[in-house]
User: What shape does this take?
Amino acid sequence: MPSILNNVAALTATRQLGITSIGMKQTIERLTTGKRINHASDDAAGLANANAYLADSKVATERRKLATQDYYAAAADDGYLDEATNLIMRAMELAAGGNASASEMASVSTLAIAAAAKTSAATSVSAITDLTSASTALGVVNTARSAIAATMATALSNANLYGIEAEAKTAQMSNIMDADMGAEVVSLTKWQILSQSGTSALTNANQASQTVLGLLR
Assistant: This one.
């Protein structure tokens, strides 16, 4: 029934245009941010879960850095002991040859002791004066390097595990937070069409009231 007091059709069209406007704004925001959830109102439970995954990922990333640092620190210790091994071998050669001067043997021994002492555990090697003491020093270094090898293997494994954890948690967070860009483009097209048709419907609804006024002329 035509009416000039209440244009229900215009009110309906206006309400629907409001819904369309909000939907278009949300879609444009998702397209520009790349995120499906930009506000808690978009998906409060999803946002909470995504934040928990993100926190886990950040923790795992930091732990991976620490494990990697442990690996490199152990690798440095292994390098020091490798140099100590070379010096002990040289001392063995000198002792076996029987023609080394006391000063030369003392110099090699001092360098070997210093190289071993540079490790984080300050590996202690006794003075090398002959083959027996050289063999003892070599045994000490070999034992220390075995422990270092275990440390390096553990650190490297931990770094890999934390890296896997960080990757998995990031993927879980991304699955919740990231917008489906293809779907959002389709959604934007829908809102644009609805906006155009809604504007046209509102115009027609307003014209209906003008038609009623025409009947009074």
Remarks:
- The chain is about 80% helix and 0% strand.
- Helices lie at 8-33, 44-97, 102-117, 131-177, 181-215.
- The CA atoms of residues 74 and 148 lie 6 Å apart.
- Residues 1-34+180-217 form one domain.
